[in-house]
Amino acid sequence: MSDAPPPIRVLVCDDQELVRTGYVTIFSAQPDLEVVGEAENGHAAVEAARQLRPDVVVMDIRMPLLDGIEATRRLAGPDVEAPPKVLVVTTFNVDAYVYEAFRAGASGFLLKDSPPVELVSGIRTVARGEALLAPAVTRHLIGHFAERLRPADTSRPARDEVVSALTVRELEALRLIAEGLSNAEIAAAMFITPETVKTYVSRILTKLDLRDRVQAVVLAYRIGLVSGTS
Question: Does pTM top 0.90 for this prediction?
Fold first, then answer.
């Protein structure tokens, strides 16, 4: 009798049939992934996700009828119970929308031209409950929109509350996360093990009542903990 966990159920949402077909082919070849459906626009994505209950939704941003941002908000927004993980796929020429996708509840993003191995790894990462933030892309996107992020957001703790809630080391880890460093890079910078970094990240999310690493990055910029020009 096999003790293997059930496959990760994936819903593919993109308005281009060729892209959807490519994703389905790539994902279906993985023994731990199961493509349970496809959607060609935001409305179809929301309906399919609610019916099929996937673990991960691979979501394009630009789609007709309802874009990927609003579809993500309806599926994984802060008021949604038991939301699926949403992995946004995008390109740099539409990066103005990525920050809004994060606020809508996305668990991570990748570039559309990412190699298949990265797409598959991305699904596994968000399915485990970890946010997917490619460091180089994070530096570009979040740094570029730092000024937009800076105004206070009453839905999140104020800077003083964040500082008082975290230890000095946790606060340092949050800054490095927001600067786009990977766990390995944070470990090297703080002279700790990657396992300790994971512990810090978990504590940060719990103490600040954040869903995932993406929300931690957005929060750090919104309260001015880091600057896109630093």
Answer: no
